[in-house]
# Entry
Amino acid sequence: MNAPRFVIVGGGVIGLSAAYHLARSGAGRVILLEQGAVGAGSSSRAGGIITGHLWSQTGVAARKISLRLFHELSEELGAYGYQYQAVGCLNLFSPAAWAERERLFPLYDAVQTPYEIIDADEIRQRWPLLTPEDDTVGLFDPLGGYSEPDDYLPALAQRCRDLGVDIREGVTVSDFVKERERVTGVRVADGELLEADQVISTVHSWTNRLLAQAGHPLPIKSFVHQRYLTAPLTKAAKLPAVNANPYEAYLRPAKGNRILVGGETADRPEFGTPSLDFDMDQLRSPSGFSDCLRDKVQPLLTVLKRQRFTEERVGLISFTMDGEPIVGAAPELPGLLLGASFHSGGFAYNPVVGKLLAELATVGETELNIEAFSPARFCAAATDAYLNLSLRQKDSFPRRH
Ligand SMILES: Cc1cc2nc3c(=O)[nH]c(=O)nc-3n(C[C@H](O)[C@H](O)[C@H](O)COP(=O)(O)OP(=O)(O)OC[C@H]3O[C@@H](n4cnc5c(N)ncnc54)[C@H](O)[C@@H]3O)c2cc1C
# Structure
């Protein structure tokens, strides 16, 4: 009997992670199809910030696994030039926003997700470059940190190749092939059919474009998002990764003694991915946005006063109707698994989501209960109503990483 064949569509962090876990399971042949180059979507544009401090039971439990896997991957991918930066992740809150976060501590305790509450004085002492307002509250995640996408993506792709994954770049999937209502493969742009025992779609903001051919859209909205790098400083900045919520931004140290700073454009309308072969390089940030972002963050990180941003990366983040990701079997399309819509946290989610997708593809169930992530949780009427709304980013979920 032939070994099963798994076809993954999309070569971002989620697709690569699924390929890695499938290849390691030894369950069969793994082919990954990517329309551009590996990482061409949001993954190469990400800040790479990782925290376990999410807001739902499933999210917190999943991130706990992700953080463990990031530490393990650091060992395994060390020879490929990747290192997880375990600098911790500091989540900042205004007093008004703190009450809502405090309500999550029983959940963090139950899942055994560690946290430290620190005030503005202690933040200044631990990281002298940070100068928060006196009433800022800090929630420190000692296991958090960041991964440099420019190191992580090539390292994971090479590890996949070494494990036998057949990565095909420059191949656009145009449709899913169905036989007796089961997905049995994919059609690529030149009309060629590729058979599969299991297809896994990890095409992020292209998801509804691809699903449109099969007739089952999901309630997903995408928004343009951008991050920047400073010029090199004279020495490495001693900083954790910071979700600087009161400053509408996030930041972290970056390679080459730089600092990475990112933020949303709250008033910008949602972005509808125009076509299957849409290229994210076409996205632009609004004129003057980088200066505005720097002005917002400067009170927290005064070193930015003397800095100009020298590099910009612009991509998309996407949100479902309830703000939780989509991981699981496509409704009414057996043979197809979906991994999509990880808000601004898909980089942080990737190790655990790859593992979950591999479990679903090989044994049909997951160790972690991920009912809350199931694509089947949305009904068609609610999905249609949501897709017909026209949203701005500020109308979506204020969720960071
Ligand atoms: C500026 C910015 C900063 C961010 N910062 C962070 C952060 O600090 N931490 C964090 O956790 N997350 C962050 N994110 C979010 C994170 O980047 C995404 O959630 C994550 O990269 C999603 O990964 P993915 O593999 O699902 O999508 P992608 O990386 O977009 O991959 C999807 C791939 O599918 C391919 N594809 C699409 N259609 C087809 C087709 N028909 N055939 C073949 N291939 C196809 C695309 O070319 C693409 O490469 C950030 C995002 C942005 C834009």
Notes: The two ends are 44 Å apart (CA to CA). The mean pLDDT is 96.
